[in-house]
Amino acid sequence: MTDLYETIRLHGFGDVAREHRRSRPHLLAVVDGAVRLDFTAFDRRTTQLANALADRGVARGGRVLWLGQNSFRILETLIACAKLGAVFCPANWRSSADEVTTLLRDFDPAVVIWQDAEVGETLRKAREASGGDRLWLQHDAEGQGSYEGLLAAGSETDPDTRINAELPLLAVFTAAFEGKPNAALLSHSTLMYQNLIVGRGQAIDEDSVHLNSGPLFHLGTLMGALATFHLGGANVFAARVDAVGLLELIQAEKATHAFIPAPTIEQIREVNKEGLYDVSSLWSSPAAPEWKYPMCMPADAPMLRKLGGYGQSEVMGLISFAYLGGTAAGRVSPMAQVTLLDDEGREVGPGETGEFAVRGPLVMNRYLGADRENQRRGRFGWHLTNDLGKRAEDGSLIFVGPKTAIIKSADENIYPADVEGCIRQHPAVADVCVIGVPDPTWKQNVKAVIVLKPGQSASEADIIEHCRAKIASYKKPKLVTFVDALPKFAGTPFTDRKAVDAAHGGGGYPSFG
């Protein structure tokens, strides 16, 4: 009898779709252009896709990669993978061919769902360079070799496979170490616990309409989308961020929630200054006065009334929330513990700075294929975040800064090690330090401070074009400075980044809370 109830108690993220089919059969689940699916149709399609993927050999632990812009098929594929016990990764479609080739090697998916529009040439180069016998499905096409073609071949009969919620489901590439991003694996339970916490904070329910206008390879957008799905609301998908297109969707679908970055909100305000579009479902006037942060929500939502928090992808986006109380970055989630440790794993005293360390079901399962880093991060029985902080007197968290700097350009995280690794491949470069410099529009710009090899020459344009060819365009430096030497810590080969910042205008690094 015990074994029976162990199975009965299992509840994976795919079961959320099954229950919506029963509880909300006619409520709208997704909107994407001409596609409008209620929860009955959505669940049926996820079952078909899961069965079709299983027929092609995707089983528990199998990996599926998405390389394309926002689409309802991202949510659909995630749920299909949830029903199989497989792992789904929505990757950055703006990556270069070299970056995608590395991604394919590191993630090693059995299936790649890709897009031809805008990025087809890049992805074909990566496909050729990576080789392998993985299945490639084009999502913006029909017929043989297409996503829809495969889905149509799948049975509509749901095998109702029981899935342990502690299995990994979502892979998010993040946290560059050793010069490149790595995949954090997040479980079914991690997603579901966070959905309930975010849903409360953003005032999401079955009447909510979430406009997915930010990229769904970022947890900032994905958290709202998943919470909306989990709580029975509708998700609307926009492939690209376009002010007029977003205004049309807000008006037509009566969006109540959205993810809209600062440069786009300014464009929206300008386009709609005469009130041509009805945005009353989201803001009180065309000026969008309630907008405070890319995650848009009702004015009375707890997270908007008290905005702030601390987190990272490895803890499903946020681990503390200002709306839960306290000051600064707020109080820790009810589904986690946070302590602050020194370099020997000892808890630091009140008011002292230490490394945020986290326990609980919001922590990732692990980094994929990074055993040494997993051991390092978990060596004290906590997940070490690589971020420094301290406690306020009231017990809430204060974020001090990353142990390794992150540059924030618009809403993109750019890791200096990633850009430095690219620049070091230039034959004229002997040494480099990449820093962020403040920018009033984009928060920060990327600046490369470079030492050239003796007898070698390179221009600013040479370096920028070198980066443009090898990494995503948003990562390339906008500014390049050549110096004779970089400051080092005494007796070490390590660059003193603070000294480089001070000498070359660095600053504006992200803090939250």
Automatic annotation (TrEMBL):
CDD domains given in the database record: PtmA
GO molecular function: medium-chain fatty acid-CoA ligase activity
Record carries keyword Aminoacyl-tRNA synthetase: no
AMP-binding enzyme C-terminal domain sequence ranges: 419-488
GO biological process, one term: fatty acid metabolic process
Record domain AMP-dependent synthetase/ligase: where: 20-368
Keywords (A to Z) from UniProt: Ligase
Signal peptide feature range: none
Ribonucleoprotein found in the keyword field: no
UniProt family annotation: Belongs to the ATP-dependent AMP-binding enzyme family.
Descriptive protein name: Acyl-CoA synthetase (AMP-forming)/AMP-acid ligase II
